Protein 1
Amino acid sequence: MPENPRANIPPGAGTDVIVIGAGLAGLMAAAQATQAGARVRVIANGWGQQIVSPGWISVCDRADDDVIAEVRGYAAIHPDHPYALAEDDAMVRGIEAFRNVAQQNGQPYDMRDKDGHNLRLMTALGAIQRPMLAPRGMANGDLTGVGGPVLLVGFTGWRDFFPALAIDNLRAAGVEARAVCIDLPANPSGTWDLWPGDVARLFDGADFRAAVSGRIKPHAKGAVKVGLPAVLGLENPVEALADLSEQIGAPVFEIPTLPPSMAGVRLSNALRRWLMRHRARVQVGHPVVRGVVANGRCTHVEVGALGHTNPFYADQFILATGGLYNGGILSDETGRLWEPLFDLPVATPPGDGREGWYGERLLQERGHPIHRLAGLRANKQMQPLGQDGGPALENVYAVGHLLAGFNPLTDGCAEGIALATAYKAVQTALQLDE
Amino acid sequence: MNTSHSVDVLVVGGGATGAAAAYDLARRGMRPLLVEQLDLSTGTSGRYHGLLHSGGRYAVRDLETAAECIVENQVLRRIAPFAIEDTGGLFIATPDDPADFPERWLAGCRTAGIPTESITAAQARTQEPALTPRITAAYRVPDGSCDSFDLIHAFVEATRALGGDALIYHRVRDLIREGDAVVGAHLEDTRTGERRTVSAACVLNAAGPWAGVVAGLAGLDVGIKFDRGAMIAMNTRWVNTIVNRLRPADDGDILVPVGTVCVLGTTSVHTDHPDDYRIEAWEVSKILSEADVVVPGIRHGRALRAWAGVRPLYEPPEAGHDDAEGREVKRTFSVIDHAQRDGVRGLVTVVGGKLTTCRLMAEQAVDVVAAQLGNEARCTTAGDPLPGPHAPRYHQLGGRLHKLEHGELPGELICECEMVTRAQLEAAIDAYGDQPVALDDLRRDLRLGMGPCQAGFCSYRAAGILQQKKGHTGPDTVEAFGAFVDERFRGVRPLLWGHQLRQMYLDELIYRRTLGLDQLAEQPTEEPAHA
């Protein structure tokens, strides 16, 4: 049998950092480690929560004034909060790194102004959300100081956007709006069971956009902005947006719709392409089934394949597997919560079993205890803590939703924490000095 | 505004017994008006496991109910074939169950007239491969599953066709007494506050757990015990046959395939309130672990929804078991002729029983009403089939998928889990005419939002379509949306772990982050007492 010279080289040899998870935190950790010169491999079971999220970057939604100052103030009095662990310049630098990478891939994320104020963006129901950054299409819809009239455009028969639902609620927020539904010029499937991605692909076509603009223009007289569902193209949203705005004659903006989120898909694509262009490996669709530990260090992870597992080795491991939604934390009927890869200790809500996990109403104020309290505790190096309160493993770091101490659904800071902790984890894993 | 009109009999309660009674009255030529405080089939009749009893479950300690069940089982199959799926039933004994029980059970079935067929463990597992290999005895019985919603609606439609009527979302504010007689009632529309007075020669109280409250409106006392039971719907049909444990009736020993799901039940917990729908964590654990004995692995399956029903239990004082509770109280029913018992004419109360025996309960209650009114017509509800299809109407996805793929269900899918189209939704909204319609009404009509995602996606879509059809204002629509979200959450809250927890996280993400519904929906000022 001919000797295979590579037979003795384990898969993943020559990798410095393995990032587990392809959400915003995982992809940005991978990007920053790559920028720092490390050889990086991303291994993920699927794309992260960005695919089902509106697509904007919430850093501290409730801040009326300077967002960064508000976060610093909060972190100063909540030393266990992930923002406090990452420390404030991690958040600023994480956001900066993210904007650069996204911008380089045709996905600019805009702010309201240079002073770090939150945007005022409308939802499909006419509520106001206040993220700090948003993809250009959404940031164009900033309603700060806007009294209207705003034109909202839906597509006749399409099930995922009903512009009329927003009118009264927007008025209550001080914005006059009117709604219109236009017939789309083409409906290739013949039915209206169109997913947002199907519509977005139609908007990638310049002819399609021109035809849509022609139908919207007669309704747009006097409108200061024109809002459409966030499906305006997948491949080149900046061009699509500019085209539509010019042809309609008013700035066009995007309103998030039901998942899958096209803004999230664009973001995933942009970050993956950036990584691959910079020689990082990205394997999505391969579950890491467990981490293997010796002498307080992770030596390798085992990745599921058909009927067996493959080992992947690296020096450093960044755990970006997400929280209860993404599978980074699992739960069962008896009230057990566990971290499946390293069996790291999981902070749990007080009380017996599942009794304290949820309140009485789904949309109750401040959300449900389980989302704030369940997760990993970490130190300022972003190393998850073991039972004794010290770092559980020397070369494993935890980022994003996997961390305890914030509620990603109600606290208005989910993406900010992903970016801040990803930045910090890479700094400590690669011992990068300021 | 106060309108008034007059009927022969006012039937209180839009559950199975009230609906069957209205139908029976109409067939005997007494014009009924049925009133229900919520929607049809929302009380105990809607909050059950879907089992059409063969009677086997009562064959050892309640022979009277067992015998009634097997007779009425045959009657319902004949008169309402569209509402029944002939799944057949199995009684399975495991080594954990008392060894002498099968003999006693067989003797009971013989006495009650319930046909049984002994089969081997291998035959049972051929029929239901998911069953445990640890089977010590297995019998077939003629159980079935029954869609109470279809059954009740058929009774009400047939009642209307015969000149009777039904009012939903109407509450009885008080019963009108003239001397020793009840002569009518004041009703209130719970949606609009509109009131009306109905005079009736007789009031038939079929209000289930609220029967004591209704009798109380006439100053009469009917001592009802409330027994709460929880059920869990698993997201697929783990079995296609009803599976019962062959042991003395206990918590968690029935599996009922119904529609797209498999319902596991039940528990039996004493409560002091007719609307105590709480489900405690131990009940969920108990039901899952007991079901896991019969179908190993089922406790790791995906649980979709849990609900509780309140059984109204009544033992006439002459039975002399004052302190019996829960499963000790027999499942027989009682018809109380208040003329005889309390000297008050014009009021008859029917209470207790099973959904399977609803027609018989109605018959015996209407016999008493008829005697008071001097009507001598005989009951004919066991004879002719109810108007409706002659074949079962299965609520399974295969049927809807077939229609979708063959162009028989036009329009886009609004609820993908249960395959509800826009055309269906619009037709259902139109059917309410000028009446208010809640998203939860549309759920009961169409199964909207009852699948794995529990309305995460279709609630927004349905709210948009409802607004288009009805021209509601934004705040009205948001309120309807929020109410639907609350209602769906109540059913999954006891089941939030694993996959269902992840699902609810996604739903919460859509409502809060994508839509901002939490900012718009009013936080209620006070919590419902026991819901």
Protein 2
Amino acid sequence: MTAIYHPTVARLTFRALLGRRRALIMALLPMLLLAIAIAVRALNGADDRAAATVLGGFALAAMVPLVGVIAGTGAIAPEIDDGSVVYLLSKPVSRQTIITTKFIVACAVTGLFTVVPVYVAGLILNNNSQQIAFAFTAATAAAVVAYSAIFLLLGVVSRNAVVIGLIYALVWEALLGSLMPGVGNLSVQQWSLTLAEQIAASGANVTSTVSLTAGSILLVIATVGGVWYAGRRLASFSFAGDH
Amino acid sequence: MAVIRIENVSRWFGNVVAVNDVSIDITPGITGLLGPNGAGKSTLIHMMSGFLPPSTGRVTLDGDVIWHNTEAYRRIGLVPETETTYEFLDGREFVRANAELQGLDDPGAATERALETVEMTAAADRPVSTYSKGMRQRVKMASALVHDPAVLLLDEPFNGMDPRQRMHLMNLLRRMGEEGRTVLFSSHILEEVEQLASHIEVIVAGRHAASGDFRKIRRLMTDRPHRYLIRSSDDRALAAALIADPSTQGLELDVTEKALRVEAIDFHRFAEQLPRLARENDIRLLTVSPSDESLESVFSYLVSA
């Protein structure tokens, strides 16, 4: 049976993600969230609507996918770009194991920079009134898992993973998602928002365009499908021949 | 004894044929894969190292297909052309990561052994990003050797190395070959191959142009003029006898060298006729040496063919 985790692959991936400028960029976004939370609380006092707006409109809609793009694609795309992935792949380690390990690391890193800050920001904004902080923390955790799978897959299949990931997150989900309701059916943000909708009190006005069942099923399909297909693509990883 | 067998392998990319019906056995000892840039050497190495499936044919290691077979890497050590490694690691960490990925029982001991083999122990604690080209190449060698593989594949290993580094790597590869490993390296630099490889496979425009040691390759090309420097007890008499024979195309009496420069067009006939003519004319042959058996001349002939 194929292992799902290889400690050496994980160590290399963690160091690649956390050792470079990438970590600084990833840390900036949650710091911005906390700064916004503190400012809103200071100016407005504890306000449930403001809390839902900040956590839904900035954290889940922008911060989580952006950190997800950086960590998800960063877990493998730079290695493929510079060719150093050859050291990882020329080993008797299943390619599926390499992908699941990198997926776990991407989840951990994205989670570190999003889940905890979202909860803390929620507490700052309204002390978890109407379960808003908890609701968005759960939604963030679900989104982290799906984004990690999708962006890791992008990192394997495309040399332009970061650009495509940003277009998906900012244009498709954030812009088109708010203009065209149908887009929500194919939006990690909306899928995970259904969880927040269930957890938050009804007065919190947290709503998603998809149902809980549909959102949950689509989250699972995107995650499992993304990881599985990334593993398949990596198993057939090839160089293009002479330069 | 590990053998990589390339059987009727072709590989194309869209309409471009990179490798065209090549069959080669890579056996223990050092084999040089020689050819100009873009000839298909890297494509062949990628197929031998499991990073490219052949479009047709098979590439096997001791009978097992290498493509989609990660277990083959227990027996293969790969030194890729790419300069980049995990730049944030130091040399020791990099080699050790390779040892761990190989699943070795004692990766620490294997790492130290490999670092010693390439004489990189002293610099092992420095980040790989600070290494010179030669040091990078050595640490890449260590990473490829850490699991004591039967096969070593090196893609253009001497690129950008200075002469001292080159000599060091050549000695190392010689040792690997003498230990019975199957060592294959590619190069477009003729003198490298000439100095190192006991066996040469020449790839030109995706085709397998020649195989053997370079003297043998040379002899295969009988229609190409061979130049010899000959010293004898009577150069003028020998010159007269040789020019009368159709195996000789031209000759020159080199007064300063006190020797005869002969251009033969029929290698086999010339090899037979020279001693016979000498004997018949009562001439003693003192020196018979090929004067242009450099790979450069072999190669330029093959490329222009």
Protein 3
Amino acid sequence: MTVFRNITFYILSMVFTVWAFCAGWLFLVAVRIFRPRRVVLKLLRRLIVWYGKAVIFGLGLIVGRVRFIDSSRGRRTEDPCVYVVNHRAASDAFLMAVLPGEFVQVVNIWPFKLPILGVCAKLAGYISVREMPFDQFLELTGKLAEQNVSIVSFPEGTRSGSSRIGHFHSGVFRAAVATGLSVVPVCILGSEDKPGRGSLLIRPGEIHVHMLPVIHPSEYQGMSAFAFKNRVRQTMQDFIDRYEVVK
Amino acid sequence: MDENIIELTNEVFMESFELEEEKLEPEADIFADLGLDSLDVVDLIVALQEKFSVTLRDDERIKEISTLEDLYRFIEHLKTETLT
């Protein structure tokens, strides 16, 4: 039954992706005639979020359920921030559609090579962090913050596949410090087998995406980037440990 | 191994990186066990240069360091070279 559900999900997702890409592309080309590039970029990022929501809350119901829990304690969603997310499975990037505000994701090199999705990520200004020097990343973060665009990052750099969060890379934390951005930790629970490492099979079950309280710049002032990243990681790990016991 | 070098190096990790002393075992891997990345290593080099008054930045041998013990030995060599 699980295999049948997976096959159905993947076929429908592929059809939907091709349709969404063509429709979105035509729509954006038409908009570009009348509106400036920045408006089109904002629209494209919004379309990607809608696409993600359609996949996880629509087609995703064939294989599982996603719940979004916002405990960020009334953060102004129009303010830019750095979302720091734990990384368990390939589906995590899609789950980011639940996050509020305009954002770009910091991704590895391989997602850019995906057909359709890679093209959209590139056009939307997603950041291939391994292909740019840190100074350039810092400059880009500053520019995005000025445009009220948040950054979504998976600082582990690779999928952990378990409830243990791996060591964090410090790049996004340095960028947050340099640009004075708030950091919002986001914990994904239950995605480790959706799909598991080296597999395409999505096991049935529920994924929880939990947005934790925001960390304002005043809270990390004077802290080294290393200490800051470890503090955030520990906060997230403590939450996951508590939450998974309760769940 | 010069105990003073071990002590001062560990001090750098505790002061600049807020790492607990019990984690600073000689066999601890700087990246896998202590969690530093390439950007943190730049901070580490700056802190070590200040602590030992040596120049590390342009030294190619630094790329071969993976454990704390490697680092102790490297600084020991460097101190000896500076004296001679």
Protein 4
Amino acid sequence: MASDTTPPPVGITGCGAWIPRRRIARKTIAGAHAWFNPALSGGARGRRAQAGWDEDSVTMAVAAVRGALGGADPARVSALWLASTTLPFADRQNATLVAEACGVPGPVRTLDLAGSLRAGTGALLAGLLDGGLPAGATAVVAAADTRRAKPASADELAFGHAAAAVTLGREGVIARLLAWRSESEDLVDHYRAAGSDHDYRWEERWARDEGVVRQAPPVVRVLLESAGVAAAEVARVIVPAASAGDAQRIAKACGLAPDRVVDTLADGCGHAGAAHPLLLLARCLEDAEPGERILVTGFGQGFDALLFEVTDAIRDRRPAATISEALAGGWEDDNYLRFLAFEGNVELETGIRAEADLKTAHSVAYRSHAAVTGLHAGRCTACGTVQFPPERVCVNRDCGAIDRMEPYRLADRPARVVSFTRDALAYHPDPPVEYGMVEFEGGGRLLAEFTEWERVPLAVGAEARLVFRIKDQDRIRGFRRYFWKAVPATRGE
Amino acid sequence: MATGIKDKVAIIGMGCSRFGERWGDSAEDLMVEAFTEALADAGVSKTDIGAAWLGTSYEEIGVGKSAIPLATALRLPNIPVTRVENLCASGSEAVRGAAYAVAAGACDIALAMGVEKLKDTGYGGLPVRTRGSFNDLWMPSMSAPGLFAQLASAYAAKHRADPRDLKRAMAHVSVKSHRNGALNEKAHLRRAVTEEQVLAAPLVAEPLGVFDCCGVSDGAACAIVTTPEIAASLGKSMVVTIKAMQIAASDGAEMSHDTWDGTTVANTRIAAARAFREAGVRDPAAEVGAIEVHDCFSITELVTMEDLGFSTEGRAIRDVLDGRYDHDGAVPCQIDGGLKCFGHPIGASGIRMLYELYLQLQGRAGKRQLPGLRLGLTHNLGGAPVSNVASVNIIGRLE
């Protein structure tokens, strides 16, 4: 047990989130399994989110962090925590990759937190309690999960893929931590063994009634008492349960009014694992009013409870309504087989073109990581020409200066389409692959793949933005490469 | 000031294998086939050849690295043999090596061989290979048709062309080449097709359909060059000489600088200007009687007509549809069927283009013969519009 009621000097200063645009109706999933497990159709309501083939917990965290930083200078980020139970690398720091992709320069403290669905609230607590954040600096806590489920399992319906991030700082705090409490206990309601793709679950009713419904009340009661806040004074209660019914039952057990429990985003997203508490918190901050108290809980081998109070600063620093917009948007895929393929649960014949060896030369990757991970072009200080990939000699024929390049990040600049094609021949996990030249406002161009599932027609001159995505999966060596892709504006945010 | 090699090098012998899916033949077999024809045509003996160049691109799935495969296949008696590689322009590069050696006086008679054995890969189209350890980290998964197809999107936008007109003009390009190729016994694809067939074909890379793409073929082509003086001493009456031989390679501007709008192949324009200057051609459309261009895709041929200056900017769609480049048009193009139908064994294609013009200039093109040709142009492109090497050669009768 650990707790504190002294408000730390560090608070939440902003937030961002990413819900993949791919959605599948739960009845589509249940319908495919009706022959095998007809009971699934009972809970098959609404739609869940699924990561595109080129998204994982790293790319989604990058999207959430970029959203949380907004236009802020990434150079101010001094620490970045990444929480997930589905990190693509067990030994290669994922948080570092996220930081570099977000344009955060070298002197940054990074750390992955994993091992439990409680990793999200754990990371948030670690960031808030961290004493090392200097004035003027920003810390980032990101959480993302892309949990896979066995076909015809309840998890397949319950899970959703999403990421959320908050920025922390000493200035411009929009939500401050009033109190927190954390307890741990090795209760195994479900687990996923290292190296395994899927969870194993014990009986749901036991997990609920003997697990969180029993664990939560004493923690919440002590937390509220220590903060001097009455249960009725808590405006919003975040309970990261898969269903609204479970969330309300848990709240009720804690003496909290069930109508204060915030929407669990079951429709449109689904349970986003370690990211879920942060996702719901980010959703609350989209429309929370100053003075509102928000209780955030997280569970998994224990129980975390964090009580926040929204400050006046939120009036001027209101986070973008990313989650509301994402829930209203999206693109529903009615193809369950494609859902399975993207989950890695069915192996398709990919043809001879997929046999190409995707071995990565890591020495080359390291030499070029600023260009490849951070999308830094070169800008010639002699003539101003922006050029990608960066070379030592300026591409401008009227210049040709040698060694006058300075790094120039393209990732955050608006672009427009110069040329494009839809290619049915080249191998791609979601054919046809679309690619073309895009040109950036302020100079520079990139021969880029286009992404996002919907096949909105491309057009020369269309606006585009850049996103960090999986580029290749080296199945022989288990390595994953990332690069930037263009999303035409017509494919929505 | 260099004046170029106009009329300093004569082509005295050429050979070309039948192109196509040569399942039963190796690259070595194909080289021997082309060489045997060229040697007989030249009327010289193997021991007269002082140096040789081999152009091949996919050595990893074909003959292997170095020039040794050529030297060994032909049993060349330990002469200097060099392998060159410049993607699909490798054949032209081999001829350039041989021609420059003769022009420089380094040897009397030189051989250029281009070969590619593509049908040993299991691929329907071109096999996938690395673009280099850095480029593989960022370049999209792309195919040749997809890289060229982008020309169509940018071209239509720039010239405000109705995409349906562009698609029809592209179809006309292919229909014309199929009609020409049907008359060519050595061609890979020898069946005429209709515009309706072309337009209805499945898409490979939008807007390119199957019929907008050239054949993927096995084949070899070969040239034997010498000085005009030696050609005359061998009793050659209808001597064909090289008027210009130019290659331009990308400096990265297309990929990395905003000066390229994606509607042209910039190097074609540069190489063509240099070639016309070297050859002393002032009015290409009036002086050049036939052209063999790098029609890897119909859209490539279409924009090449503007890049070479045979159509004015934005006019190619109209000119193509009007039949300007048909067999009986003002500037006959791909008389032999082109890459589209003769086929495209990468390393051999540049030499195959010269082979057709060489036959035409000597009045030996049979059913495809054009009347009174004096000057012909080849355009051989390696790479893709965004990064490439363009070769423009002009050959003609020695006046």
